[in-house]
């Protein structure tokens, strides 16, 4: 699929933001007052910023409010409901920690669950699509959730937990790439099934259905060169997981230096995840490409 910048921003920022809210809701780090305010400000900036970025991809952003009404059948609607509920509940929890120097545990736990549910519902928007075999597998929600938890732990300053979660997320990423590369071939979808002419023998495209481009080709058929893809995978994995883990494992003394290294690890992780997200969309092989002889 065509990797729209707004969607990449949305999935990257909101995942990190709700991941941080998850840990804050569980009291990690255990802070109050101005320090708590800073953590919540970062979490809300990422989560709300990501959600706002998603509206730029809509044909009619002014109708975004209607997305909340279809929660019984739409994962997009469920995502919106979970996101708003998480932000409201965590907002109440933040009031207690920032202004009243107290933790309302029940709000924190509910908010943490809703934050993780938001990430899950986001992942299911893509995982439910049978027309894109690379997304239509359990590793898609596993990847979204592991990325969110790893990034959230990193932003929350939970170094030991972040190291373990980054390693797990990295392994999930490798697994996603490995299985994803075989997903289209394993789906059983071919030129014959795409055209419905399989009973007549092997089918090949004699000429394109159109002389020019159209919406389907622009949005759903994005071909990435194998060498280009492999380079981006190495960059994404190195910046997103390998480098942050190495930085967290360094024996560093001094609070200022420790904070500086942690900030570099966060920025590296964000850059790597952005690269991974670009590949997530760019490598998505929609079955409509078969009709146009692009697969």
UniProtKB/TrEMBL annotation:
Q: Which InterPro entries match?
A: DmsC
Which top-level group of life is the source organism from?
Bacteria
The UniProt keyword set, sorted, is: Membrane, Transmembrane, Transmembrane helix
Residue spans crossing the bilayer: 7-28, 34-59, 80-100, 106-127, 139-156, 162-179, 235-255, 261-280
Q: Please list the coiled coil stretches.
A: none
Pfam family, any one:
DmsC
- The entry's protein name is Dibenzothiophene desulfurase
What organism, scientifically named, is this protein from?
Answer: Parasedimentitalea denitrificans
């Amino acid at each position: 699929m065509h990797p729209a910048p707004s969607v990449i921003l949305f999935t990257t920022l909101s995942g990190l933001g709700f991941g941080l809210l998850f840990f804050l809701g569980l009291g990690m780090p255990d802070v109050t007052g101005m320090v708590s305010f800073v953590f919540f400000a970062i979490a809300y900036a990422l989560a709300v910023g990501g959600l706002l970025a998603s509206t730029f991809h809509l044909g009619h952003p002014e109708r975004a409010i209607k997305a909340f009404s279809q929660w019984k059948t739409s994962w997009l609607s469920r995502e919106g409901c979970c996101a708003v509920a998480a932000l409201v509940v965590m907002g109440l929890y933040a009031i207690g920690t920032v202004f009243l120097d107290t933790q309302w545990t029940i709000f924190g736990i509910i908010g943490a669950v809703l934050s993780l549910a938001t990430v899950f519902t986001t992942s299911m928007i893509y995982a439910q699509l049978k027309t894109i075999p690379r997304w239509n597998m359990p590793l898609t929600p596993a990847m979204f959730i592991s990325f969110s938890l790893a990034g959230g732990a990193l932003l929350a300053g939970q170094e030991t937990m972040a190291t373990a979660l980054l390693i797990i997320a990295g392994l999930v990423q490798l697994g996603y790439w490995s299985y994803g590369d075989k997903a289209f071939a394993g789906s059983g979808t071919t030129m014959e099934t795409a055209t419905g002419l399989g009973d007549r023998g092997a089918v090949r495209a004699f000429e394109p259905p159109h002389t020019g481009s159209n919406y389907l080709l622009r949005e759903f058929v994005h071909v990435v060169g194998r060498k280009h893809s492999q380079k981006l995978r190495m960059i994404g994995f190195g910046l997103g997981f390998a480098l942050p883990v190495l930085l967290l494992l360094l024996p560093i003394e001094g609070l200022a230096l420790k904070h500086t290294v942690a900030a570099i690890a966060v920025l590296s992780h964000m850059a790597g995840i952005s690269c991974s997200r670009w590949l997530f969309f760019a490598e998505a092989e929609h079955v409509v490409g078969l009709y146009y002889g692009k697969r």
